[in-house]
Amino acid sequence: MMSVDEICIDKIRKIDYNHLDISDYNRKYIQKIIPHINYYFQIYSQAIFALHCKDEAQNNTEPHPKPLSTLIVDFGGGHGFLSLFLKSLGYRVIYCDINPLSVKTISLIKEELGFGPDYVITGSVSELKQFCHENQLKPEALIATDLIEHVYDLQDFFRQLSQINPNLEMIFTTGSNPENPYKCSRLRRYMTQEEKVYFIKRKEFIQLNANHLTEAEANTLSKRSRGKIYSDILKILDSYQKTGNFPLPLDDAFNTCDPETGNWTERILSFKTYKQLASEAGFQAIFIRGFYNEERISNSGLKLVLRLLNFCIRKSGKFGFKLAPYILIKLSPKYG
What we know:
- The chain is α/β, with parallel strands linked by helices.
- It has two domains: 240 residues, Rossmann fold (3-Layer(aba) Sandwich); 63 residues, no CATH class.
- The protein contains twelve helices and seven strands.
- It has a seven-stranded mixed sheet, with helices on both faces.
- Helix 4 links the parallel strand 1 and strand 2.
- The longest helix has 29 residues.
- It starts with a helix and ends with a strand.
């Protein structure tokens, strides 16, 4: 007999995405995921299990047989496969994504399959909060995959989530694992390339809004405004023109974001920083180790290496974080 996840995967595989009226980007993204869909569902299972996990060393990929809550949010849901899995497990599901093309994708997939999320929202955390308030919904849990590393203002993000439900249980998965030196090195090389583009965007914006500045002033302000969106850069310019003082540089030498959208480039934050930001919003944070996709590689020797790595991740305590390709961050109410 097929398991719930196997049934869900089978249904997803049978869809002819070439005949769905979805964007080329979403179609190509889905086609890239499908060959490795079992691995993604293992991650989803791990995230669902983590809602019950109290030990940061725990690393189980089996979903709990009964839903933890009656209503759960798939935040930043993208193609919506997590929503489909959650619905298969018996949850009521709120799907939320800021991209209208992704919202259209899950809506068409839901129509094709005959099941899917109960509610579909276009927007981010403020739209989710408004929707829940207007419809008197109080989700008890939230899962977001590969999202937390891109959120511009995590302090405000956590605060708004706490306003939806101060007892919300949350799971975030991210490949920006601060403990894995190889991942950090690779991501920082990528950030360095992205920053070349973002620096130019910030400098052009600064010179447009303060054309009296010298070249040296514009360069310094452009460097010191790394990690800021245009509205916050205007505040920096206003402060500089009033005081003559440059803002302090970021402690981190690599993290950078698109000044137009606020989207961070795979931002790397320490466990300590996550804990502090969560605490300020009334939550406590624990961290769980991810694992490698052993089926991705056909070479038996390399597959054995991945199997050994996963064994070490599971069995080597906190050192396992240094090997893990991604982490799960669980936020729970501090006084729940």
